[in-house]
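Input (structure):
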């Protein structure tokens, strides 16, 4: 099981990755949505804002309210961000739970 610090680092790494995307990709995937990522095995939630193709203002929170809600295990978060876990396969097998509109799912898939 990954630690809280490893999960927080993964969330910030994801934010940096999104910030480093080229302008065309950022334009195509531009969303302005609140996002939460609930780490089931640790019982913690991170919140951020997807804006202008990047994830901003990542913080720990008690609320899971957001327009896009992710839930997964700590190890899966770290593997997903490191590129060792395929988002689509993990979602299809239930390792990652996503609650979002179909439009947001399609945009999110292209970011991961």
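Output (sequence):
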């Amino acid at each position: 099981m990954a630690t809280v610090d490893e999960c927080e680092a993964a969330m910030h790494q994801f934010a940096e990755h999104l910030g480093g995307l080229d302008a065309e990709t950022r334009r195509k995937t531009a969303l302005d949505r609140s996002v939460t990522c609930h780490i089931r095995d640790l019982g913690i939630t991170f919140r951020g804002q997807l804006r202008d193709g990047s994830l901003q203002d990542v913080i720990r929170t008690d609320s899971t309210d957001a327009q896009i809600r992710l839930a997964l295990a700590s190890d899966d978060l770290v593997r997903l961000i490191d590129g060792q876990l395929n988002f689509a396969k993990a979602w299809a097998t239930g390792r990652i739970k996503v609650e979002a509109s179909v439009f947001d799912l399609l945009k999110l898939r292209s970011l991961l």
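Notes: The mean pLDDT is 86. DSSP finds five helices and five strands in the chain.
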